[in-house]
Amino acid sequence: MAIQEKYLRGRWSISILFAIVVALEFTTPSEYLFGYLYTGQILLANSRLSRLGKLQITLVAALLTLLNLFVPHGETIALATVANRSIAVMALGVTGYLSDRNQQYEEAIAQTKAQLQSQQQLASIREDFVSTLSHDLKTPMLRSRLLKLLNRPNLAM
Fold first, then answer.
1. Which is higher by pLDDT, 27 or 2?
2. Which of 19, 27, 69, 137 suits 1 as a labelling partner, its CA being 20 to 30 A distant?
3. Does 140 lie in the same domain as 69?
4. Residue 138 buriedness (CB in 10 A; 0-12 / 13-18 / 19+)
5. Are residues 105 and 43 in the same domain?
6. Which of 38, 28, 99 lies closest to 63 in space, CA to CA?
7. Percentage of the chain with pLDDT > 70?
8. Which residue, among 95, 28, 96, has the nearest Cα to 68 in the 3D structure?
9. 77 and 127 share one domain
10. Between 79 and 29, residue with greater pLDDT
11. What is the mean pLDDT of the chain?
12. Which range among 88-92, 126-130, 140-144 shows the weakest confidence by mean pLDDT?
């Protein structure tokens, strides 16, 4: 239940943040660029959604950033505005890609740590086994040597 709650909270958080940025984006002239604020949703999706979900969030953010060029009808679109929005879309794409790569690296590191821990545990078990075996092999030999020493004629009391 806790995992499902986290998943739902993540979805609601992302949706609320999208609504806020969309409101900012579409209530201001297209020269004002709020598309960079979508990086928060992308990064939030990184830890809470699947890879496909992260891709969808990134694409929606990029499309909404570009859509603001055309939605407020009647405005003339300056080349600088198109360039700024294009750069923002590229930045959103890079953010999505890097956050995905970061998660893959974190998973690989966690897997490597787990393997290392199991190898260390196995080495410890081997060491304990060898130590016990060595002790058990030495103990009878020591006893037999002591008996031989005690049975020598020159040690008789």
1. 27
2. 19
3. no
4. exposed
5. yes
6. 38
7. 83
8. 28
9. no
10. 79
11. 83
12. 140-144
Q: Which residue has the tokens 């609601």?
A: 12
128 lies in which domain range? 119-155
d(CA 27, CA 102): 34
Please give the average per-residue pLDDT across 96-110, as a whole number. Answer: 92
Q: Are residues 35 and 75 in the same domain?
A: yes
| 3-state secondary structure at position 76 | coil
pLDDT at 73 over 80: no
Whether residue 151 is predicted with pLDDT greater than 80 in this model: the reply is no
Residue 80 in tokens: 């600088």
Q: How many other β-carbons are positioned within 10 Å of the β-carbon of residue 93?
A: 15
Q: Which residues contact 57 (CB under 8 A, 6 or more apart)?
A: 14, 41, 42, 45, 49, 96
Task: Quickly list DSSP for 2-62.
Answer: HHHHHHHHHHHHHHHHHHHHHHHHHHS-TTS--GGGHHHHHHHHHHHS-HHHHHHHHHHHH
